[in-house]
Amino acid sequence: xxxxxxxxxxxxxxxxxxxxxxxxxxxxxxxxxxxxxxxxxxxxxxxxxxxxxxxxxxxxxxxxxxxxxxxxxxxxxxxxxxxxxxxxxxxxxxxxxxxxxxxxxxxxxxxxxxxxxxxxxxxxxxxxxxxxxxxxxxxxxxxxxxxxxxxxxxxxxxxxxxxxxxxxxxxxxxxxxxxxxxxxxxxxxxxxxxxxxxxxxxxxxxxxxxxxxxxxxxxxxxxxxxxxxxxxxxxxxxxxxxxxxxxxxxxxxxxxxxxxxxxxxxxxxxxxxxxxxxxxxxxxxxxxxxxxxxxxxxxxxxxxxxxxxxxxxxxxxxxxxxxxx
Length: 325
What we know:
Layout: E1 10-13, E2 23-25, H1 31-37, E3 44-50, E4 57-66, E5 72-76, H2 85-96, E6 102-109, E7 114-127, E8 130-141, E9 148-156, E10 161-162, E11 175-176, H3 186-212, H4 217-228, H5 238-256, H6 269-283, H7 294-302, H8 304-319
Parallel strand pairs: 1-2
Antiparallel strand pairs: 1-6, 3-4, 4-5, 6-7, 7-8, 8-9, 9-10, 9-11
Helix pairs in contact: 2-3, 3-6, 4-5, 4-8, 5-6, 6-8, 7-8
C-alpha cells in the first residue's frame, strides 16, 4: 500500500496532516468519536501457535491477530494481556478530562500493530516570542514489544517541529505493561495532567535558558559535534564525512531556519537545538519514505529521530548548565 497508515486509518482536527490522509472531525468530544473516524475500532485476539507437522500447539507462544483482517501482529506468551484500542482510548479520556483537551490526530502504523492518539492541551508556552503548543501522545502496541505509553510532546508552532518527547521516568509520564486491567490505572491516569503541568512549566523555563545562552561559532560547532558524535581529532571515514555534511545542514538551519527571524532567539542554544529538531522532522533522509510516508512519523515519535532530538536536548542542558535531575 502507498502509506503505512493502515488503509488510510486516520482522523484529524484542524489543518490536514503532513501525509494528507484522514477524516476531518470538528473537535471530537470523546476518544470514541476519534477512534471510529480513524477506523481503529478493531479488536485483537490471541491464538496458539501450532506445529504444521503435528498440529500440536507450541507452548507458551501465542500469536496476536486482528479479528477483522486476520493479520498477524506479534508473538507473545500466555501471560500477555491485550489492551484493546477502545480501552486504550477510553483510558486517554480519563487522562485529558472533558473539555480539557482537543483530540488532534489518531491513526495506526503498519498492519495496525501500533496505534496512537494525539491531544492538544489548552494554553501555549512562550520561549521569548516563540510559541510552543502542548500535546499529549498516547500510543498502544499489539506486537508484544512495548507497553501502553504516554508522551508529553511540545511542538514549535512556527515550523511545526516536534521537540523532545518525554516519557523516561515516572515523573514525566506513564508506561503501562500488558499485565492487568487497564481500569485499575484510572487514578494514576488522572494525575498525568498535573504532571504535565509541571513538565511544561519546567520545559518553558529551560527553553528560556536555552534562548538566553548565546552561541558563537566555536560553541555551536562543539554542540553539533557532540550531537552527531563527531570527533574532530579522528581522520575522516564514510560515517564521519556523512555526519559533517549533516553538521553543515544544521549550521544552515542555525542561521536561516524557519522562525529564527523576529523572535529574538538568533545565535542562541535554543536556535541550535531547533536546528536539530527542524532537520530531523523536515529535512533528514528517511529510507523508503517515498513509498511509505508514515516512516518519517515513526522515526520522529518512536525511532532514530526521537533519539537524536533527545540527545540534542540532553547535551543542550549541559551547555546551559542545567542539571537533568
